Amino acid sequence: MSLNTWLIYLLASIGLSLSPGPNGLLALTHGAMYGQRRTLFTIAGGVLGFVAVIALSMFGIGALIRTSAQWLTVLKWGGGLYLVWLGIQVWRAPPVTLVERSQSGPGSARRMFGQGVLSATTNPKALLFFTAFLPQFMNAEHSLLLQFAILAGTFAATELLTEYLLASAAQRISPWLARAGRRFNRACGGVFMALGALLPLRG
Prior knowledge:
The chain is mainly alpha-helical.
């Protein structure tokens, strides 16, 4: 993978991590309820779940393109259309809201970790998204295992950092989300639509 391709993927991963979704909302909520340090259990579970979903997506795609490299082109264009559709849905989504701070004491580390894993792995949209998103950066001629290490590792790092920042700032950004959440959703939706329109055009 070239440095230019990786940088584009890094920027796209940051945009994906910042966009409204179950794991981001869970990190925000747990950050408000339990504090940023305990929310690391939730975040770690979510990151592990996303790595599993990326593995399922990439190796499924790898098995398909081994039959014919032309499948990668089909997946890129089909994935581009899906990203545009997803961008439209995010654009139209209502603002994210948080629950009030819990008065029941700290959550169980195991339970919080499990909630993070389940939030990432039980959402069928995550598998659909990565099946659409990852082919834009894959090369049928290169090692699938190496590409998995780079793509999954990069996304895991950006997701962990982004969710931690969200959890840390949960109390401060909650009022902002109430005021500007719809504009934020439209910005994220615009990013997805741009990715869907432009990435399949790359070589």
